[in-house]
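haha ok so turns out i had the wrong file open the whole time. this is the CORRECT one, sorry everyone. sequence first:
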Amino acid sequence: MRIPTKLSLGTILFAAVAALLPPTAGAAPGALAGADGFASVDALGQDGTTGGAGGATVTATTTAQFLDYIARPEPLVVQVSGVITLPTGDSDGMHDVASDKTVVGLGSTARLTGGGLNIGLPVDDDTTSPPADAVHNVIIRNIAFDGATDDLINVQMFSHHVWIDHNDFSNGDDGAVDIKRGSDYVTVSWNRFHDHDKTSLVGHDDENAAQDTGRLRVTYHHNYFDASDQRNPRVRFGEVHVYNNYYRDSSYGVASTMNAGVTLEGNYFFSVNNPARVDFSGDLGRLVQRDNILVDCNHEIETRGTVTAPSQSYAYTADPASTVPTVVPAGAGVGKI
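then structure:
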């Protein structure tokens, strides 16, 4: 069902330009021309998420090239070719991505290993509203991430308009994709998460209400949580839309706590002990659910309270949940855009 609402000007222009381009050979069902979900919303002075559009296109084949390109202040489309090892150094392997960047893998073999990407300013607990220089307008697509000594991707400190799409995440030491400390307007779509434990946080701490309340608006859709054990995602404070994801063989899918509001829609849960919870740790969250399918799960979905409908912020089309086990594995991950 199409749910009509106002699209941002950036999303409309991005889609119009994409429509003039030839189709990508072998593109999988669901391959997107531009950001959707919360990343498409016109807010905070940013009209949707376009990344490095309008800037030069450069190709990184070495670690030095890659780290130079992602740190530059101007808009850039940074193409990743082959395998690039990120050093640990004095940053625990986390490397900063500046605003107005598209980081996109070439083909199906682009890989970042040994470290992770940080999208955000340094942590400052005293900052409780978005600073003027908050990192924004970042796209990460079509890259395999593994072996980080910390997170694979970390979004923090009021970063906004971030689109994480068609990647493969595995074997990180901490989170695969963590979104925290007041970050906002983020979409996580068509990714495969596997061989990983603590997959994705939205909000890192029960005591961080000052930064997080009224923010952490995130969309997760068409992701393949392939035996990624927990936090798929685990949400505090935020308003999160979780739709058309495929969950297979995990301890729990989604947790909503600290008065977070989660809309859980059209997902397929197979062999998941707790598909979704509101009674978890910390204060209870809010969760509404519709049209989800549970197969060989030990518990029902827990619901509580009311949640603002995502359709008030953006338009989307939810696939029937029955199609998710076919559509999502076919389209999620690298080499499919």
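The helical segments are 9-20, 63-71, 209-212, 324-331.
again sry for the mixup
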